[in-house]
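idk why but the lab printer keeps eating my pages so im just putting this in chat instead. protein + iron/sulfur cluster:
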Amino acid sequence: MDFKIMPKSALPDWVKKLTILYRVVAPVPKHGQIVFDEITDPSTLTMLYPQSVLPPKKYLFPQHEVMLNYKLDGSWFEANIESEPTVVLGIHTCDLHAVKLFDRIFSQGYADQHYQARRDDIFLVSIECLTPCTDESFCRSMGTLSATSVFDLHLIDLGEDYAIEIGSDRGESLLNGFKNVFNATSTDEERVNDRLKDKWAEFPYRLDFDVTELSGLLAENFSSEYWDELGEICLACGQCTQVCPTCYCFDITDERSLTGEIGQRTRTWDSCQIDMFAEVAGGHNFRKSRAARQRHRFMRKGKYQMDAYGLVGCVGCGRCAEACLVGITPVKTFNAIHKRQLEKEEA
Ligand code: SF4
Ligand code: SF4
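predcted complex ->
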């Protein structure tokens, strides 16, 4: 691995320099929680944070975006592509895995030019997690506890210094001209290895089985009564999907001006868990029960994405577990399904 070393005391100067050249977004404390927000003052950011309320996906896939402007008489229409050179600083490795999944999803079939434009303008600066974010995190079980290939720079906290792994030429360019960055020595490499080795003991496995079994396990239990039990308690509030770094369901709306001459097509985050999501023409709802929607959600997280893209559809961040008022969580769900499978096999 190709490392640089930056003293921690130099981080504010580096970030300040970045803010002159780019929009910089980073984890900042707000109302007792952590949110990703644009910063201009490096003293507002925190690199040691439990978990942001929303993942940084909002910079790749905004909550609300105008996709198309047009005249209603059909004589003109134009795609609205918005992007801005942006450094996303301090991303945890689970969220990095979620970006990798999005890169696959949004580039296959009809490549999403809105996503692509923003992605091309984004620099990902991630940070190694050394302790679990919350009691609900299960990144180790999902295999997302280490950085994956999409980062531009990856920081590892060595105490007084950061080790910086270079992931791309454009990542290295973020360090160009900054004096307080040094080539790593063999001693530094040993410090990095020790840090990475020691952290694993901090992260418990929370699934009772190996994640490679998950897709098959869910397939076997498509008709499980467990989904009905989840449907009985789910409030259909959609909070679990709103906070999820791998959810990307959206609604498309056409809005016309008051004069009726021009219109806009907009895309807004939606949730497969709310009652109206699957309602189509004629009032037919193809996923009307909450049980069917919960099943669909967990099938996507544990099976469908893995089958389609070869990557986990849940990165184990634990945000949905923190957000759910009735205590529905991926860990409880996957372990309950696994337990029932064992009981079936023993019967
Ligand atoms: S399903 Fe829950 S734990 Fe998994 S990635 Fe989404 S929010 Fe995180
Ligand atoms: S947050 Fe909980 S109650 Fe709300 S839709 Fe998701 S699973 Fe159901």
